[in-house]
Design brief:
The protein is of the alpha/beta class and 264 residues long. It has a domain of 175 residues: Glycoside hydrolase/deacetylase (TIM Barrel, Alpha-Beta Barrel), CATH 3.20.20.370. The protein has eleven helices and six strands. The chain has a six-stranded parallel beta sheet. Helix 8 crosses helix 9. The protein is globular and about 55 Å long. The relative contact order is 0.16. The structure holds zinc ion. Zinc ion (ZN) binds next to strand 1. The site of zinc ion has 5 residues, from strand 1.
Amino acid sequence: MRSRAVLALALGLVLFLTGCGGAGKTPTQAASPPASASPTPAPPTPTPTPTASRATPPKPKLRPLPKTLPAGLHRGSGDKAVALTFDDGPDPRWTPQILDQLRAAHVTATFCLIGKQAERHPELVARIVREGHQLCNHSWRHDLNLGRRPVADIKADLARTNRVIRDAAPGAEITWFRQPGGRWTAEEVEVARKLGMRPLHWDVDPQDWNHPNAKTIINRVEAAVRPGSIVLMHDGGGDRKQTMAACRQLIPELKKRYGISRLR
Ligand SMILES: [Zn+2]
């Protein structure tokens, strides 16, 4: 009896010493004994259904979306010429194609970049800047509800996106911010401004994200465009073959009819 107790004590001492002596090797093991040594019995499990456990971290309530767009959004090029904007890239398949088209036409556009995409394809961000296009922050992960979240979350999202864009293109100017889906809130516009970005909306939306054919994209743009329009199209977020085809006709046509200019 007593010898067993001594043995247990000795064993405990050895374990204690090796636990301390192995500093750096297994820090998690060193931390585990107190938990198992807990004298209290395991607490009754509070019937954790999968939904209940997922709901435990309280989600901040989303701010309601305003019925009308907040004031101060840029919806015109500031010029007689039209401005082209391409969202949801950079994408290794489509972005180089549209860059080639723009270069061939000697015009520039504005690229609304998703942070995660910019992190994955920094060489495309660098090329966009090198070829004289303007940059627009389009949120980290295309969060349609970003404008409804706490101001601190919006700020963190926008700042993180700007950080990866600037890592890819040091010193690049990120003039614009565009809320995914155009689901703006006044609070978000304010955050963007505080971070030095102007809120960029549009007035011509051919809904190319919904995969109409090239002819439909062309028709929709032609029907809605007027002097000073901002045209919204996509070079990422899905198969953009039809957008690329539409642009081969639209870019020379818009350039001839209105001119294509930088946003101001
Ligand atoms: Zn988008």
